[in-house]
Amino acid sequence: MRTRVVALCGGVGGAKLAYGLSRSLPPEELSIIVNTGDDFEHLGLHISPDIDTVTYTLADAADEAQGWGRADEQWTVMQEIERLGGENWFQLGDRDVALHLLRTQLLRAGNTLTVATAKLAARFGVGHAILPMSNEPVRTVVETDEGELAFQDYFVRRRCEPKTRALRYVGADDARLSPEVTRALDEDNLRGVIVCPSNPYLSIAPILAVADLRVRLRALSAPVLAVSPIVAGLALKGPATKMMSELGAEGGALGVARIYSDFIDALLIDARDAALARECVDADPRLLVGNIVMASRYSRVELARTCLAHLDQLRK
Ligand code: FO1
Q1: 103 alpha carbon to ligand 1 midpoint, in Å?
Q2: CA angle 253, 255, 258 (to 5 degrees)
Q3: How many CA atoms lie within 13 A of 119 on its CB side?
Q4: 132 touches ligand 1 (CB under 6 Å)
Q5: DSSP letters along 143-154, please?
Q6: Secondary structure of residue 242 in the 3-state scheme
Q7: Which atom of ligand 1 lies closest to the CA of 47?
Q8: How far is the CA of 246 from the centre of ligand 1 (A)?
């Protein structure tokens, strides 16, 4: 019986489904591959936003309203940084700073990002494998009508306002999949792959750009199911819809299906987009319909269970 599920995940939306999967599968049956294209050095600290969002979400420690960082935070460090004239555009809570300090210390001591992530996740009581896509740096660069922007400059400092012309994932050609990611994708025991509802360009594409991952996914005999991050034409959070139109891509859930069409077997879309599935009966990838908006912890688990059932159907 093939038992291991691999999830590809970015920030908020993806982390919610990763949470649902973590409450549906034991640690040995779930590996979560996380985007590190948003990582950057800031105030001398190595910051890995998507890894932290997944870790905090699985640990029930995330600030859900804010969509990033810790719950029950104080901001005394940030206030003092500001008073002392340091950069304050990227808000770091006191507890969050502790995590960045320890990760930076672990990396400086020669640990890989994978090992540092595992050590910190264990301290949060997270048993499931949170795997950075690579131990080598990959950085998302957004080419806009205002020139090239590093990811956090685009996303936080400029609030995604500039028009996106293209995206580059600097370092992806030289970066290797980590040994842990390579092992997770080993077909011997692979039940299937779930692409979580994260931004296709900012969260999933950087993961696919690493080494030969996209080619590996295409070649899998195990099923690959993606969950649409777009419902009724709009992204539930973040700039995906805006970016798709700025990049001249088809919009909506069908646009997502097109972006992923070379390596997924099916795309799970929301009931509000059911008409698309009726119009495209013999579409490739197949369009499956379900309730994919995760408004509660319960609905995260429900969606995870739905994805697992579809994976098993797709494998038959
Ligand atoms: N996003 C913001 O819009 N403003 C911030 O000040 C901010 C701080 C921050 C600190 C730590 C962290 O892990 C994430 C943070 N984010 C912030 C979100 C971050 O830019 C995004 O989570 C990802 O990079 C994209 O999903």
Answers
A1: 17
A2: 115
A3: 14
A4: no
A5: EETTEEEEHHII
A6: helix
A7: 13
A8: 22
* Residue 53 near ligand 1, beta carbon < 6 Å: yes
Rounded Cα distance between 5 and 18, Å, is 11
Residue owning tokens 């025991």: 189
For the chain of 316 residues, list the mean pLDDT of each consecutive stretch of 10. Answer: 92 95 98 98 98 98 94 97 97 98 98 98 98 98 97 96 97 96 95 97 97 96 97 88 94 94 97 90 89 95 98 92
Residue nearest to atom 16 of ligand 1 (CA): 68
Exposed/middle/buried for 89, CB within 10 Å: 0-12, 13-18, 19+? exposed
With 0.70 as the threshold, say if the pTM is over it.
Answer: yes
171 lines ligand 1 (CB under 6 A): no
Contact 232, 273 (CB under 8 A): yes
Residue of 35, 97, 156 best suited for mutating to test ligand 1, as the one with most atoms within 8 Å of CB: 156
Tell me: cis bond preceding 285? Omega within 30 of 0 counts.
yes
Q: Is 91 in the pocket of ligand 1 (CB under 6 A)?
A: yes
Query: How many residues are given for the chain?
Result: 316
CA dihedral 206, 138, 183, 118 (to 10 degrees): -110
Four-residue CA torsion sign, 45, 51, 53, 57: negative
Beta bridge partners of 289: 269
Per the CB < 8 A criterion, the answer to whether 269 and 253 are in contact is yes
Residue with tokens 């269970």: 305
38 CA: nearest ligand 1 atom: 24
